[in-house]
Amino acid sequence: MAQSRVWHPFTQHALEPSIPEIVLTEGAYLHKADGSRILDAISSWWVVTHGHRHPRIMKAIETTASNLDQIIFAGFTHEPAERLAEALVGLAPAGLDRVFYSDSGSTSIEVALKMALGYFRNIGAPRSRIVVMEHSYHGDTIGAMSVGARGVFNAAYEPLLFEVDTIPFPAAGREQETLDRFEALSRDRRAAALIVEPLVLGAGGMLMYPAWVLTELKRITEAAGTLLIADEVMTGWGRTGTMFACEQASVSPDILCTSKGLTGGTIPLAATIATDAIFQAHYSEDRKKTFFHSSSYTANPIACAAALANVEIWHDEPVADRIAALSERQAAGLRRFRDNPRFTDCRTTGTIAALDLRTGSAGYLAEIGPKLRAFFLERGLLVRPLGNVLYLLPPYCITGNELDGLYDAIEEAGERFG
Ligand code: PLP
């Protein structure tokens, strides 16, 4: 291909001069122009759930596009958005019943933060502090970076970020420290919201914590009148074994953010789902209480139709059984690494499996990351380690044999680099 003018995300072009071109996606595979194929073990950045190009979603996209393209969503509505909102309220934890659409995980977080502050302002008791969990990642826009861990991803933009209060990650055996810190922070009742990735912190290193911690965090938010924002952008749509991770903690957050798997991973769409109390705080004849947020493509009808088809797949196909089988395979697959001295912290939650390669250097910028990525790509496998953290987050259509091939490759990587 002629020299590209494209600037890729999270890519150091000086170190990645050649970027493979994909010409076809199908099931669990990406096909290259030269006819070879790559097993997508990370669901193309955690978005693809049923497999690439599920026919039912593709059909919904085609059918809708023959009638609707884009409609201004302020002052107008359309059937795909209405039906999808109804479906999402049915699927989300109890009490969440107003759906605000946007286009990416990051914007769903911005919307959630604005809703939380707007809520307190509109009820006449302004609060402005946001409490966040250590090692979190919520996206790359300014607000989402502000509530995420500070580090290499956002160091250059630090002056733009707002101050937050941080609770420690509830590492095994130290969960009480997290709860105590949050309890202490909650005493002055200045916290508008606690934002968390439920059960699994993704880009922070696939760090996992038990459901009871989330249950306790929710209890503390309730006592302090603080809102709980659940960032289910990565964990939603079955990744952790249940539709939403919050379910495992029997927690209904005040605001839930979803994107990625919302359209089965086909086209961009996000939703921030809030309680009626938050909606009612904005519902007023006073125009100053309006929720002042929009993006041009809010609730794109084609994207909403894709998401509706995704919901129908959940309804009509044995998706829950596939997830249960994949979760079991992942747990069994990781067992073989437990006694392997080249790895530590083998862990799974639902369909997500992760383990750390023992190396001299850890962290996102560890040299080992790109080397491992290249090692897997040479074997036709898309695995994109977070520094020395190897993880598999595959689409639910992946087969047992394909998973075994991935575990074999991870074992080989351990021998080569561990
Ligand atoms: N929140 C979480 C937990 C994520 O994992 C991500 C992306 O990986 C985001 C938010 C941001 O989503 P997007 O990349 O669609 O903006």
Automatic annotation (TrEMBL):
Gene Ontology molecular function: any one: pyridoxal phosphate binding
Chain positions of site Participates in the substrate recognition with KAPA and in a stacking interaction with the adenine ring of SAM: 10
Pathway named in the protein's UniProt entry: Cofactor biosynthesis; biotin biosynthesis; 7,8-diaminononanoate from 8-amino-7-oxononanoate (SAM route): step 1/1
UniProt main location, coarse: cytoplasm
Gene Ontology CC: cytoplasm
EC number: 2.6.1.62
Residues the record lists as N6-(pyridoxal phosphate)lysine modifications: 260
Reactions the enzyme catalyzes: (8S)-8-amino-7-oxononanoate + S-adenosyl-L-methionine = S-adenosyl-4-methylsulfanyl-2-oxobutanoate + (7R,8S)-7,8-diammoniononanoate
InterPro entries in alphabetical order: Aminotrans_3 (IPR005814), BioA (IPR005815), PyrdxlP-dep_Trfase (IPR015424), PyrdxlP-dep_Trfase_major (IPR015421), PyrdxlP-dep_Trfase_small (IPR015422)
Keyword Kinase set for record: no
Function comment: Catalyzes the transfer of the alpha-amino group from S-adenosyl-L-methionine (SAM) to 7-keto-8-aminopelargonic acid (KAPA) to form 7,8-diaminopelargonic acid (DAPA). It is the only aminotransferase known to utilize SAM as an amino donor.
NCBIfam families: bioA, PRK05964.1
Protein name in UniProt: Adenosylmethionine-8-amino-7-oxononanoate aminotransferase
